[in-house]
Amino acid sequence: MCARERGWSTVAEPVKRPSINPLRAFRGPTGAARPNRLHGLSNWQFTAGSAVLGLALAAGAVLAAGPWDSGQRKAEQEWAAARSRTGGAHHEATAPSGPAPAPSAPAVLTGLNTGVDKSAPDAPDTPDGATADLRDTLTPLLNASALGTVRTAAVIDTATGKRLYGKGADTAMTPASTVKIATTVAALSALGPGHRIATTVQASPDSRSLTLVGGGDPTLDKAALRELAADTVRALRDRGIDTVRLAYDTSRYSGPALHPIGPNENIAPVSALMVDEGRLDGTDSGPAPRSGDPAGDAARVFAGLLNDADIDTGSSPVSGRPAAKSRPVAEHLSAPLSALVERALTNSDNDIAEALARQTALAADEPADFDGGRRAVTAQLKKLHLPLSGAKFADGSGLNRQDKVTAGLLAGLLARAADPDHPELRPVLTGLPVAGFSGTLSKRYTETSRGTGLIRAKTGTLTGVNTLAGTVVDGRGRLLAFAFMASGTTSPSEAQSSLDALAASLAARNG
């Protein structure tokens, strides 16, 4: 929710385009993640770019344990693959035996591997209580009038799993965009960081009927469509075909396409087929005018590309399923799920978040709609032994006010993502905006703020609701996961400043 929500919110959550596009590393020369060419066409091997991302653990100590791949160490990805070996369609291939964990590349935060039982990292060892120093630091800040009528908080030491501070930490509240933390954890847990979403072109046995089949990739762009069209044209010419009927298939998703907030610049109709998130102004983040028919628009662009290559598609494409015994002639795979997660969190991207909820639903054999996403996300988080009392995931983005989570759950999700036993969840941490530098925190901290560059956190903003959940390294070198939630706020800017002060106070602590 990065701008005005018609009928739901009159408060804008600022979005800043990141200096490093998480998907750019997976682009080919044309700027698009290139399709795989099928049936005699060559396969494109995706190359992973590197992003210099890391966290300081102690004074002057810097993690330098190896190369990064989309915000996650390659050694960790290999370790995760070696442990799970799920493989399968649209996942990165793994060798039968797989690599062993690299001893020279420890988990993201070496201080986490303490041998402590982390079956419930958010266990309220001090339920709604606090160590004296944290209570003295946080309680006055939580009493700020700018935080409205109800405010809750949780702070967890990720190394031990101990809740260091809690104030109403088990009270369910509207999370706004911080619910994306739950959505992304569930998706990564269900599908793995290497999962890619496929968009395909299917041809009938006589090659005279084509169907553009959406797989649910909201980041599909015109460059990718251009590559799909080029591969399709080659396959048709191999068979001497120059006239086809074109359809498009969005059946992978079900249920209503419109989010309950209705037509809105914060989110396009949720469709299995769209180009550039249905944006009509050329932007790639933040609010934008949206298409009312993103699937139809994508199909018409594809038809135009075929026509430009002298493949006559006749009348406008129509919605429909592929003909019986159709075969794939072109395929485009999205960037890895790890990159989609990072973009969703950094930019507070609602379209990607809703797509991730539906992909999680599909992995659980649930209908790919709002209800199926709710059930699948809930079930996946239960598998991670997270405290779900009072939780409700009405959508994947946080635009729906019916979403409910606790501060304890948000902090617990982040602690689980830091757990060395779950390297597949690391993109949740690396995707969090950096205070004063990226995403929705780019302008929330000044150059002289104690939290600038040290705090990574997801923001949440709706009218009367302000939240902040993330991680910070304190003066003792401990990685803390925190969540602060406020409702009944009347000034978004003042509420955000108060939340920022709470997070910054953790960075400054030595006790």
UniProtKB/TrEMBL annotation:
The gene is dacB. The lineage of its organism: Bacteria, Bacillati, Actinomycetota, Actinomycetes, Kitasatosporales. It holds the Pfam family Peptidase_S13. This is D-alanyl-D-alanine carboxypeptidase/D-alanyl-D-alanine-endopeptidase. NCBIfam families: PBP4 (TIGR00666). Belongs to the peptidase S13 family. The chain crosses the membrane at residues 44-65. GO terms for molecular function: serine-type D-Ala-D-Ala carboxypeptidase activity. Residues 68-133 are annotated as: Disordered. Its EC number is 3.4.16.4. It comes from Streptomyces sp. 900116325. InterPro entries: Beta-lactam/transpept-like, Peptidase_S13. Keywords: Carboxypeptidase, Hydrolase, Membrane, Protease, Transmembrane, Transmembrane helix.
